[in-house]
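Cross-check.
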Amino acid sequence: MKDHLVKAVADGVRVYAAVTTNLVNEAIRRHDCYPVAAAALGRTMTGALLLAANLKNREALTITFDGHGPLGKVTADATPEGFVRGAVGNPHVDLPLNSKGKIDVGGGVGTNGMVTVTRFTGLKNPITGSVAITDGEIADDLTKYLFVSEQTPSSVGLGVLINTDLSCLAAGGFIIQPLPDATDEVIDKLEANLKKVNSVSHMVEQGLDAKGIIAEVLQGFDVDYLTTTDLAFRCPCSKERISEVLLSLGQKDLESLIADGHAEVCCHFCNEKYQFTKEELQAIYDKAMANRQKKAQD
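Predicted model, tokenized:
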């Protein structure tokens, strides 16, 4: 099944659902994630895509969990066009199962810190909100963030099922938000549905697509399905962009790289490695010095 996100409305309720198995596997491959890191990163990337679905085109958002746990920071960037990238500080963390017999994402993320959401809307300064992490399991923390920081009552469900070979068997998520005209009866029916619904990862494992997930959580509702967006792990890094970063280095740092005769730069988000020869580094150095000389003259 292709990764995708579906938007829908029903009886005073807005819902987004996504299947993200393939992009989670891409993140696992790029970062060589062990199960705890895979589950934490997969849930965070899926959550980022669901929150970004409410943005306008060419906007973006970043979610960062910094709970001071063994995983370090868990970060995901997403756009409303359906692109996401993510990274985890320590992908090789190995923890025993938690008291429920499940992957201990909360233990990996930690609870002594904050979850921060930054929205890049094209304004001069991005909009940032944050709340204290409750359990580090990602979904509950995003539910709390939406309610406390954005005053939006929501229910967030996220799931990542990891196979014994460390691959992702199934991943997905949903966000449900009552609209201002939702009646008490609608909210009661919605809460009853959420109590009995299966986990997202098991719904995806059973073959349900995003519309199927929505149908499960909105049983008894008259659902109006709106748009479907393809999803993918995509990082906008390139050798040209990395060259711009190298341009900003100090003179001594650039001279040191030239003396080494070679440089390898690795993108934090996608682990793509970029090689620079001595000649390329010299060209970057020459351009950097020319730029600084021109700036000094201006």
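The chain has a mean pLDDT of 94. DSSP finds ten helices and 13 strands in the chain. Passed to J.P. for a second look.
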